[in-house]
Amino acid sequence: MSVLPPPRKSPQQRTTSPTQPPQVRSRAAMALSAAAAEGRFVLQVCPECDSVQYPPRDACVSCLNTNLMWQDVDPSGTLLAQTTVNISVNLYFRERGDWRVGTVHLDAGPSVVCHLHCDCVTRGRVRLINRLDRAGEGVMIALPEGGKATLQSDPQLNALSSDPTHRRVLITDARAPNTPMLAKALLEAGAATVFVGEAESWLPYPTRQALDKVKNVEILPLDVTDTASVQRLAAEIGGKTDILINNARFLRPGGVMARGSTGFASQEMEVNYLGLMRLAQAFGPGMCARTADGVNSAVAWVNLLAVSALSNQPGFGTFSASQAAARSLSQNMRADFRASGLRVMNVYAGPTDDAWQQPVHPPKVAPIALARAIVTGLREGLEDVYCGDVAQDIAQRFRENPGLLEHEVTAGELG
Predict the structure, then answer these.
(1) What does the pLDDT look like over 230-265, one tens digit per residue?
(2) Over the stretch 312-344, which tens digit does the pLDDT of each residue have?
(3) Residue at 242 is within a domain
(4) In 3D, which of 301, 318, 300 has the Cα closest to residue 309?
(5) Beta bridge pairs of residue 197
(6) Scanning 125, 252, 257, 412, which has its CA 20 to 30 A from the CA of 160?
């Protein structure tokens, strides 16, 4: 018998016209979902006449050009009209009503139907965001322009967030340099308790003293390379882990030809890839079964990855390969967790300020920047977060042309 609850029916607006071919609607939904994973607001734009298209279509409404591109557009607009759905045959809406929806005329041209934040008013200025619902589909949401409105400040839209407030969080590696700052940031964001996994407790490490000074942090034995250790901790706290953050990693410099053996590569795969698999197998079923538990529901699984997972960095070649393997595994986790609504968020960081990346040229990602990026990504309900200038630059190049990025990186043109 499956441990996963039935698939959720998620609150998503119609993104295409019902008269359009199914393949057009499918491509549109996938494009919006991919952009929502990164928090980008995109629509189809005609490269010939710059006309912005909505709903998505096969040809431009102005010049009939068929080469339409998905691009970031101005999300500002005016709320023309709104309504409230009080009764619905859809179980998801019935349990979470009343739902406000409205029509927004974008400054970019078209009018779109979207969800409304509770502070939006008719004829008022709004800004649209594109976020993922719990089924992994992109939905458009209107927030008041210039205000401080967030997903968390609306009772219905809060379901799209993975806000750490009142939740219990597990950080898998106490020895990681970013762990103390990450634990502190999560508690400041409202987390109730932060569990921290510690391997080889007999061996001293610098961050232990810093962790001891943070209140509401509980250090527990966890070695991601030991299946029995992972299973024991899952049996102990798996039923009360709402957010799991996997920051365990093994990093050493060098590529295939620079190493005389496969020793370090084996350890990189053991920690970075197989460690993630062990955690998913032990904690995943319990977290998936608890995604509807209200305030203390399981909401997110966070993987900390190097941005070299997108394109191999020769100076850290085999480490990059292990990160690419972990990224691929996280995509499989998204498929496995999707039915339950448990979100998998990948945080891609550029070079970090640690002992093994000292020779790498700045800019580097400081622990506080990484902690803030994770908290923001959780609150915004994102699936992909790029932390640091290097990560954001590589992500943009990867979106534009992965093959060109590979040649630039391997030729050393990105430093």
Answers:
(1) 999 999 999 999 999 999 999 999 989 888 889 999
(2) 998 899 999 999 999 999 999 999 998 898 999
(3) yes
(4) 318
(5) 220
(6) 125
Q: Which amino acid is at 261?
A: S
CA distance 286 to 242: 10
* Domain count within the chain: 2
Q: Taking Cα atoms as reference points, which of 279, 391, 382, 372 lies closest to residue 326? A: 279
The 10 Å Cβ neighbour count of residue 72 is 11
Where b means 16+ CB within 10 Å and e means fewer, 337-352 reads bbbbbbbbbbbbbbbb
Percent of the chain past pLDDT 90, that is, above it, reads 60
pTM: 0.86
| 44 and 173 belong to one structural domain | no
Of the three residues 138, 160, 182, the one that is the final residue of a domain is: 160
Same domain, 46 and 104: yes
CA distances from 349 to 42, 304, 360 (A): 24, 8, 14
* 131 & 245 share domain: no
Residues 147 and 196 in one domain: no
The rounded Cα 410 to chain-centroid distance in angstroms is 27
186 and 137 together in one domain:
no
